[in-house]
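Example record

One chain of 62 residues, shown exactly as stored in the release files.
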Amino acid sequence: MNPLLAWLLGGSNVPDTAARLHVHPQTVRYRPRQLEKLFGDTLCAPGTRLELIPALQATSTG
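Predicted structure tokens for this chain:
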């Protein structure tokens, strides 16, 4: 599963995302911090999340 998709589907919940990805929760905490440095608060905006989820789902199945 795409890590960003797992994060978005998990509602930014660290334990849930870590379980989806089969990684340690600390790994999940580290990655979004990197994304926040690049994109700021954009990924937290509900509209952006609603646009990203179907796009990421389409790319992961295709």
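Notes: The chain has a mean pLDDT of 88.
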